[in-house]
């Protein structure tokens, strides 16, 4: 199967460029973390590299080397902020695997024993709830 090229106008590229809003958690020269607008559990966040790649399959390993420590940092902060029993980290490659936005991203979701996740790409969360949850994570960073 042939894989499509990276589209520089995808929605996460627009978030990086500031063309559409996001509830930001962390930013450095190479990486951005922000709240997922359709959280599968409170505190669901996304970590993305600023350099464009469609997903993990075409990513530059040097980009991954800078990205994964930030995924770890946000996972630890999310665990602490939500007093979670565990943290789910997920990343999908191509539609067959569940990918819907074609800019590499890692999902970080605090998990609590016995509480199921909401469906992937379900309903939009209220912006004030997202901001309140973001404030908890930022405080734990
Ligand atoms: P995936 O299926 O791994 O490509 O997931 C894409 C994720 O991006 C989903 O969890 C969506 O809820 C989330 N998402 C889509 N658009 C936005 C946006 N503008 N801001 C924040 N999260 C988004």
UniProtKB/TrEMBL annotation:
CDD domains xref list: HINT_subgroup
Span of the annotated motif Histidine triad motif: 103-107
Entries under SUPFAM superfamilies matching the protein: HIT-like
Record-linked InterPro entries: HINT, Histidine_triad_HIT, HIT-like, HIT-like_sf
Active site: 105 (tele-amp-histidine intermediate)
Keywords: Hydrolase
Residue ranges annotated for the HIT domain, each copy included: 11-118
Gene Ontology terms: biological process: nucleotide metabolic process
GO MF entry, a single one: hydrolase activity
Highest taxon of the lineage: Bacteria
Name of the protein this chain belongs to: HIT family hydrolase
Species per Swiss-Prot/TrEMBL record: Rhizobium oryziradicis
Taxonomic lineage from the root: Bacteria, Pseudomonadati, Pseudomonadota, Alphaproteobacteria, Hyphomicrobiales
């Amino acid at each position: 199967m042939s894989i499509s090229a990276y589209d520089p106008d995808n929605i996460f590229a627009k978030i990086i460029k500031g063309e559409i809003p996001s509830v930001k958690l962390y930013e450095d020269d190479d990486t951005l973390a922000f709240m997922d607008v359709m959280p599968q559990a409170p505190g669901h966040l996304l970590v993305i590299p600023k350099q464009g790649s469609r997903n993990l399959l075409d990513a530059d390993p040097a980009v991954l080397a800078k990205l994964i420590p930030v995924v770890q940092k946000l996972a630890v902060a999310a665990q602490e902020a939500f007093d979670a029993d565990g943290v789910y980290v997920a990343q999908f490659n191509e539609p067959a695997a569940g990918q819907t936005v074609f800019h590499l991203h890692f999902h970080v979701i605090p998990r609590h024993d016995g509480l199921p996740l909401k469906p992937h790409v379900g309903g939009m969360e209220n912006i004030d709830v997202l901001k309140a949850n973001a404030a908890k994570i930022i405080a734990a960073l």
